Amino acid sequence: MARIGEIVETNSLGFVAESFELHRPPALGSLVRVSVDDRSLYAVVSFGATTGIDPGRRAVRRSTEEVFDEAIYREHPQLERTLRTEFQAVLVGVREDDGPMRQVLPPQPPPLHYSVWECTADEVCAFTERLVYFRLLWHANGGLPADQLLAAHIRAIYAARGDDLGWLEGAAREVATLLRDDYDSLMSVLQGIEP
Predict the structure, then answer these.
(1) Cα–Cα distance list, 101 to 106, 123, 171, 195 (Å)
(2) Which residues pair with 50 in a beta bridge?
């Protein structure tokens, strides 16, 4: 379990965190955790981006003759300090003390500057035993279409659970129930999670 970022923006539905590793946000759809006192908040990574620190300017100016590649960063390491990698995450659950994991929005958003942690394999398996939280993901307002976020999450969890085909089939049934009135989105998700 590794510390992967720090929260820089927060609200009742999710948060934005700055990644500790430039150009490497956590995988789209992965499950992450924020610990607040005796409470653990769980979230699904819904977007990632590397941008310049100054929002009004591009991170690097290039002339038409300049070929931009990794060698420029090696020659000019100060350029790395003008960039940041951030990721957004949608809150999907909470665990109070050592109680059960609940797939609901937490009563309060995580505070600013708290650490974001990668979930352990045991946490991923325990949290994803039930799939009620798919509805929270489906209705999330993020930088990604809901069907693509749901498919990315299911693929990430399927891999984290060791390619558990039984879990994948259960996830497909849950998606079919959730999207029974939206054939196009249903097919988009089902095609996106095909092993």
Answers:
(1) 11, 10, 18, 28
(2) 85
Residue with tokens 């970022």: 5
What value, to the nearest 5°, has the Cα angle with vertex 87 and ends 86 and 91?
A: 145
Average pLDDT for 168-184? 97
CA 101/CA 106 separation, integer angstroms = 11
| Most distant pair of Cα atoms in the chain: their distance | 60
- What's the CA gap between 191 and 195, in Å, rounded? 9
Q: Where are the alpha helices (DSSP H) in 2-120?
A: 70-75
State how far the alpha carbon of 186 is from the alpha carbons of 112, 182, 191, in Å. 36, 6, 9
State the Cα–Cα distance between residues 42 and 57, nearest whole angstrom.
34
Which stretches within the chain are classed as H helix?
70-75, 121-127, 134-138, 146-160, 165-178, 183-192
Q: What is the mean pLDDT of residues 121-131?
A: 96
**Which bin fits 29, alpha (ψ -120 to 50), beta or left (φ > 0)?**
left
Domain residue ranges of the chain, discontinuous segments joined by +: 3-192
- Under the banding of pLDDT at 50, 70 and 90, the label for residue 64 is very low
CA trace torsion 43, 152, 100, 25 (10° rounding): -40
In angstroms, the CA 156 to CA 34 distance is 19
CA distances from 172 to 45, 101, 168 (A): 20, 22, 6
